[in-house]
């Protein structure tokens, strides 16, 4: 984010012709947030392969950060973010389906009661 | 997009022929899969309706993967952006399903409310029918007098000299309770009467106690005390001459005077 790493990166690009990534702090923050959100809606790694991947990749991203392997960290964190968002969305879809099931059960019960009432 | 893909695949082919190392078979597969997923979501009108942003992101990531696939040694990056694209497509599908479920839920909720209302109405009408039936029963058991609707509980419902209501009165009392429950505004006055044998004070007490015991049963069965007045008249207001045993038996009685439907009760004697 600061001037110096950018300059350093530019220098590296100029020298070696290959891009050195800046530290993906913002991405890691986003990923952490996505993981928290997934947890908040009730996603758990034991039940969601996507969340498990998200957690594993996030752990690798943090390890990469420690080693200043920023490109790897960014890619792992980006994938982890979307894995977590997918896990969250899957839980919410399931919950919406469960709500529909509850409504359907109630409707069936009401219909039955109405039929009983008519039969009497 | 498809033109882009065509262009890119042409480039890929050229790259592969030239260098043989521009694409990784894995990255090509990843690109194909991501393209296939993206195609499906962008052709789905519901997805476009509920998750347009996710579709755009899936497209952007795919385009990026496409672009990168034309560079040498970019296999990992291509796979990465293809992965992100597929994730956005999958998220788009989830968001779409949620949106559709919300719509379905709103419809079902309306249906549920409609049915609930219908059920309530049908229950109400059966209660009204029941009420009508009970009213007929009560009317057949009671007589219309200038004091209002009056039901007489005869001497046989009490033991001689005893104020306790016998079990044989249960059916009648239950009908009165139901009737009062179905007509919550109606109130009753329970009037006790005795024959002229025995002392005046004794008769007054016994007539009042008998009326009270009927009132107690009503209250025990859930009728609000405020709706039940109790009077004891002793040997006053006989319905028959006290000369015969039959006449005296008819004079020993409890009368239940019903108010009209608005709760207006005729004045006490």
TrEMBL record, chain B:
CDD domains: OmpA_C-like
Family annotation (InterPro entries): Bact_OuterMem_StrucFunc, DUF4398, OMP_bac, OmpA-like, OmpA-like_sf
GO CC annotations, alphabetized: cell outer membrane
Record has Iron-sulfur as a keyword: no
Residue intervals of the OmpA-like domain: 145-262
UniProt keyword Membrane present: yes
Record key words, sorted: Membrane
Compartmental location: Cell outer membrane
A Pfam family per the record: OmpA
Name of the featured protein: OmpA family protein
Source taxonomy: Bacteria, Pseudomonadati, Pseudomonadota, Gammaproteobacteria, Pseudomonadales
